[in-house]
Design a protein that fits this description.
It is found in: Cytoplasm, Cytoskeleton, Cilium basal body; Cytoplasm, Cytoskeleton, Microtubule organizing center, Centrosome, Centriole. The protein is mainly alpha-helical. It has 10 helices and 4 strands. A hairpin with a 2-residue loop joins strand 1 and strand 2. The longest helix has 122 residues, at 208-329. It is rod-shaped. The chain starts with a strand and ends with a helix.
Length: 385
């Protein structure tokens, strides 16, 4: 898994999904989405079996990561945080178990990160498919360009050959037209005749072999004319095919571009809607957690008020006992009574006032007042016995 431009792009050989679901987790079913990319792949939460590395986690400076955008640190610790097991973790000082609400919050955060990583893997795979399609389209476009270039070169050569044949035919027609203008010139000698009959008899008598050659030349000319006509037809047919292919390619390219644009817009809308839904879910969950914390805080506040009221009652009773003890000191009976040692009285008073001292340990004056009240209470109890 790698980070590029502050985003996580998983590699092709990413971790395999395990078949056993996490204990207490509900198996997820296949999620589908009406988008051009097709349905989402099967997703299931992995079990949390790894132990968290507290030393490695404690060495991370969160403020430094935020300030320097240190995504490499996130990359190194994302698996340790997402797939660690915290049910058996205990406080190193008091050995007490983790708060259930805090544990639930951490587990929800782990599941959310795992689901986001899965969605990111799916989006990355779809992006690779779209890029491959684009590459294929570009290669097809390059092949079509090469084919068009080759056909244009063939057309240019055919046009040159057609011009050459046209010049040849024009020269032959010009020569034949000049001979028929005023007299009938013999093609094999310098003699000229007044009509066609004399010319034919001359050719039969003097140029019988040359007439055969002339007929052959005429046949060749006729053959060349047929070839020229055939080349013209082929040229016209090739031009028509080329125009049709160009038109078809333009129409197909425009349709593919429109479809790709529509697919990209739908995909972007789907991503935006999914992000909004996820944000709303996170906000709702945070509101619920906040309400639970406020409720627990109010309960603790009410309990603290009750304990403070009980403490005031105990202080009042201690002051009353102290007054009674002062009254009994003045009596002659109290003079003959043996008063226990101060250390024992202090020990007894501290033992009796230990629950109260826990709630007033933040103030030194209150601790001294609690000790005095405990001492007076112990002395009073001793005198009463």
């Amino acid at each position: 898994m790698s980070f590029q431009k502050h985003s996580c792009y998983p590699q092709s050989n990413s971790q395999k999904r395990r078949d056993a679901p996490e204990r207490g987790a509900v198996p997820r079913t296949r999620v589908t989405a009406n988008s051009a990319s097709g349905p989402l792949p099967f997703f299931q939460f992995r079990p949390r079996l790894e132990n968290i590395d507290w030393r490695r986690l404690g060495a991370i400076d969160v403020d430094k990561v935020v300030g320097t955008m240190d995504v490499l640190t996130l990359q190194e610790n994302i698996m340790n945080i997402t797939f660690c097991k915290l049910e058996n973790e205990k406080c190193p000082y008091c050995q007490s178990e983790m708060d259930p609400l805090l544990l639930k919050l951490i587990r929800l955060t782990q599941l959310t990160i795992e689901y986001l990583v899965h969605c990111q893997e799916f989006l990355t795979s779809q992006l690779s498919v779209v890029e491959e399609r684009l590459h294929l389209s570009m290669s097809g476009c390059e092949q079509n360009k090469q084919l068009l270039t080759k056909q244009a070169e063939d057309i240019r050569l055919l046009k040159q050959e057609c011009r050459r044949r046209k010049k040849m035919v024009s020269a032959q027609q010009l020569m034949m037209g000049q001979a028929q203008a005023s007299h009938y010139q013999c093609r094999f000698c310098d003699k000229a005749f007044m009509n066609q009959a004399f010319l034919q008899s001359h050719l039969h008598r003097r140029h019988a072999a040359d007439s055969c050659l002339a007929r052959n030349a005429k046949a060749q000319n006729h053959k060349l004319q047929e070839e020229i006509n055939m080349l013209k037809e082929q040229l016209q047919f090739t031009k028509t095919q080329l125009e049709s292919a160009q038109h078809t390619h333009q129409v197909r390219f425009s349709k593919d571009y429109e479809m790709q644009k529509i697919n990209e817009e739908d995909f972007q809308k789907l991503v935006v809607r999914w992000e909004e839904e996820e944000k709303q879910k996170l906000v709702d969950e945070m509101e619920k957690v906040k309400e639970m914390f406020m409720k627990e805080f109010k309960d603790l506040t009410s309990k603290n008020s009750a304990l403070e009221y009980q403490l005031l009652e105990i202080q009042k009773s201690n002051m009353q006992g102290k007054l009674n003890m002062d009254t009994q000191r003045d009596s002659p009976r109290f003079k003959n009574y043996h008063i226990p040692s101060v250390s024992k009285i202090c020990y007894a008073s501290l033992s009796a006032s230990k629950p109260v001292a826990r709630w007033i340990s933040n103030s030194q004056g209150r601790r001294q007042q609690g000790a005095e009240s405990g001492l007076s209470q112990a002395t009073t109890d001793t005198l009463m016995t």
